């Protein structure tokens, strides 16, 4: 790590500082001292003093806090650790607290003391918790700092604050004293969001990578700020009809090619795009537009950056000391010690922090499978079985259960979503039934089977109908979300549109058909940015999406189709009321392999809301095609992916269709319909005799 020019500390100052209790402050002219307006009020609850040897030394920790922290049960550590601007004994300053049990010396260094390692030594608590504390007068919001830590062995480290609210902009690596104060204006959303986030509500998620969703058109290298992103993103998502936005990791990360998945500052939104309050405003503006916010959360691993969590106090503090459990071979990163109580408190507190201080509506937990299995990406002999001889990580299972119980107890109106790619049972089932307690789980099987099927030449799809329909076999074993995520459009996998076979028209028709199938299949939905308008190239983390494509009719058609599907999904109760109930879905016919046509029904609480979906998987239009009807009555086409407004051919069913008393496909009534090429049509009964 490159040292700053202002840093003048020496090893002799460390030993000298250990012999003095005098607090020395060296103000720097460029750093303003804090104003009263940014001082956080201090209550007796937040400053409960425990019996301490120095008698009255300032601390935010009570004995009960220490007990909870060391038991792995503390869920609000962000109120205790880190830097907090307060007024103490009539003096404005900043309180610092850090966990470093293997350190023999810890000091706060920064611009305010010329990076002098001996200027502000911290005191270790008497109770064996390994927590170091100090109150430094006359420094406040905006001060840059790190912790200088000397391990018992004499090894010296300079670390950022694990609980920092914000950081310097990369490549700089210091933490910054800040606060979470914000005048929220999203009260209406917060009071009503339980209905919007419910499992029976429409839940259509737009996945966004902040750095590459859109950039400055006049300077493509410049990333937009949180405010600039809000100006464009909020109206766009609102117009497209998505119910939620999911941000790929926004927490502080130094390495752009990691896409945000290698985090050094778990309690800070990325400083590349602005300050914490700027991100709060982005969340608030989405809420005020009726859009929920999900954050990608990464408890699965962290990087080995010198200023980060790895070997934080010179020991394996946050990571597991056994590299069979503490090192991730795929990502060359480190794995949390999930059995260490203090680390569990850190992770649970971090999850609640974003729900509490940033009003987010849910967390999508990354790489759950890599956490659940001790042998994940490891060969024989490279992993250690659990106490029962199995490969399941029992510490992770208990952590997830405690995490989800804590979240839903304190925030019953949010959702936790697991990216879990195996058949581990009960991921989205309640803890009291033996499940992990997540609200939803990604349906990776549906995604893999669907993309494989749609990449086949339509003439050969008839040989793979079982592959296409297999998802219905297990669709209701979990609360599934159907993902077409960022992982499917990178590393040579091609963009969604370029996965599709055929000429240009057929590729766009196939993609519209895929989206229609997705939005009418049981489960909530997730679409990665760019897919909704047919982005041609693969996603690149450092380049804006190709928004100019929306000048082309074909891409306009994809966007219009997705917008219409969002409207259909939100307005038709049958498509979301029973998303996770088997009685909300029923096959009509899967046996017409020769014509490669599939039909099914989605059911609402009210039978009058039921809809019929028919998919034509070939480019051959079918006229006078008979399907079984759910009941007698008149049916109207309420969606057709071949609509000319979607760049389709316009083949369809303009006139109402009367179901006839003619048995077909095991049903008493049936009707003759027109099926457009490579298209989905949706019918709804408008009149019952």
Automatic annotation (TrEMBL):
SMART domains: Aamy. It comes from the Bacteria. Gene3D superfamilies: Glycosidases (3.20.20.80), Golgi alpha-mannosidase II (2.60.40.1180), Immunoglobulins (2.60.40.10). CDD domains: AmyAc_Glg_BE (cd11322), E_set_GBE_prok_N (cd02855). Its EC number is 2.4.1.18. The active site is at 366 (nucleophile), 419 (proton donor). GO terms for molecular function: 1,4-alpha-glucan branching enzyme activity; cation binding; hydrolase activity, hydrolyzing O-glycosyl compounds. Keywords: Carbohydrate metabolism, Glycogen biosynthesis, Glycogen metabolism, Glycosyltransferase, Transferase. It catalyses: Transfers a segment of a (1->4)-alpha-D-glucan chain to a primary hydroxy group in a similar glucan chain. Pathway: Glycan biosynthesis; glycogen biosynthesis. HAMAP family: GlgB. This is 1,4-alpha-glucan branching enzyme GlgB. It comes from Arsenicibacter rosenii.
